[in-house]
Amino acid sequence: MQYTSELENLIIQAMFDEHTAVMLLIEPLTGQIIDANHAASAFYGYSREKLKSMCIDEISPSFHEEIKRRYLAKLDQENQYFVYPHRLSNGELRMVDVYSSQIHDVDNTYYYLIIFDVTAREKYKQELYNEKELLRLTLESIGDGVVTTDTGGWITFMNRAAQKITGWEEWKSQNIHFNDIFHLLNEETGKPIESPFAKALKSGSVTVMSNTVLLNKQGMTVSLASSAAPIKDERGNIFGTVMVFQDVTHAREQQKQIHYMSYHDELTGLYNRRFAIKEIKRLNRTRQIPLAVIVGDVNGLKITNDALGHAVGDKLLKKVATALKASCREEDIIARWGGDEFIILLPNTSEQTVRTVVKRMKKTFLEVVGD
Question: What pTM did the predictor assign?
Fold first, then answer.
């Protein structure tokens, strides 16, 4: 269908005037608004005549500078979409998407602008960014290690605590898989354990890891308390995993030390009375019978303490402990019962064997304690 030039102009003018999108025609160097449609008048809060008497920098000074820069740099064919703040007649600031193109007549070049109010979108983007940044700063500042992966196990985030514990400070410069960093072993057996990343994906729920040690980048073992969980979207689809862990090496060592001290005599290193009583109850079963018990004390300990001092007495007790350990079998339980008294429990031991142990014990005492 062919139109006359006059009809084409009428159609274009009608499209400009009646379109619901905000449209402006401006002179790029001066910023003078040449024309504005009804939607522009409604959006900015100025009459069409008022808008045509204004410059665009009265609405957005920085926006005018951008238009001028684009015109002088001949950028009309690229980067035509950009976001800028525009101020309305009531002083309210709105964020707008601007699509621009140049229009040429015989003597002049104008910029034709189509403008959309995207304030809500930009506000949401800013809020989303703020939440993400707050989460990032929180994760970076906490003492627990935090690592996230995609569903393939490739690491997408690792906070400073995680980097320190694993020894992988330069992880960002590499494409690293979870299994490349987390060499996890069972603390008791030393055998590799299933990746918590894989367990979280498989179960679809939180997985707690216990008795776990990490072999870090420096080849040192680090005791971990950790948990892993899948990361899900609003529809429940898993798109990654997160693992949170602590270096509990010091705590585990303290726990072992406390456990050791609760069942051992501090001076001799032998088991203490508390442990001996517990073992007597445990061994008092048919499969441990016959159960032999040897009880003895150190002659002259009080005289030694009084005459030579407790340091010498303590040395004597240590020698007795050494002699007892050298005389007994590995499965025998030797304990300091209290003061100068010692007790030895010998499970599954005949009377003849006990006599042999006692004989060996007397000989060892002469060698170790007699000097």
Answer: 0.58
